[in-house]
Structures are given as C-alpha cells and as structure tokens.
Amino acid sequence: MKYIPGFVAMYKDDAEYIHLYFFPGVNNNTTIYNSIDLSDIHIQYDETKYDDGAIDYKFYNKNIYKIYCKLIETGSNKEHFKTLIYK
Asked: What is the pLDDT of residues 1-57, one digit of tens each?
C-alpha cells in the first residue's frame, strides 16, 4: 500500500452533534499516527471504528466549537499539534 496521510477533522451532523473524525494514515502498510486518547475527556461520546483504522467520535455536548489534538507518530513519537475550529 502506498502513502495515505493521516488527519483529523471536525464536523457537525444534521442533528447538530459535533464529530471528530480521525484517520491514522498509512505508509507501506504501517499506520502513521497512534490512535487518539480521550481518557481525560469528561464529555459523553460514542465512537464508530472503521476497517481502515479511522474512528468517528460523536460528542453529545453540542456547544463544542474548538478541539485541540496532539497526533503522535507511530514509532518515532514525534508530536503534531492540530487545532480544529467549527465555524
């Protein structure tokens, strides 16, 4: 498998719930980023896992407008910081 970059995205569904979509990326059959750790989040959410490694988190607090993410590369532990804002 070739290189497919990893990413996170924030969106609002038709019912006004905020989602965080995470795709870990792939480089020569190895994931690029570790999964997202939400153990410190005290907001109710559900997660849907997909076969390609992607995870869609649905948050039940409809007032979220900004999410900070720290993505950590698999193997090297290099950190990438992302700030997602819903406008």
From this structure: 689 999 999 999 999 999 999 999 999 989 999 988 887 888 999 999 999 999 999
Domain assignment of residue 62, given as a range:
7-85
1 part of a folded domain: no
Residue 16's nearest CA partner among 52, 58, 78 is: 58
To the question of pTM greater than 0.85 for the whole model, the response is yes
Whether 2 maps to a domain, the answer reads no
Domain membership of residue 13 (yes or no) is: yes
Instruction: Produce one character per residue of 7-35: b if its CB has 16 or more CB atoms within 10 Å, e if not.
Output: bbebeeeeeebbbbbbbbbbeeeebbbee
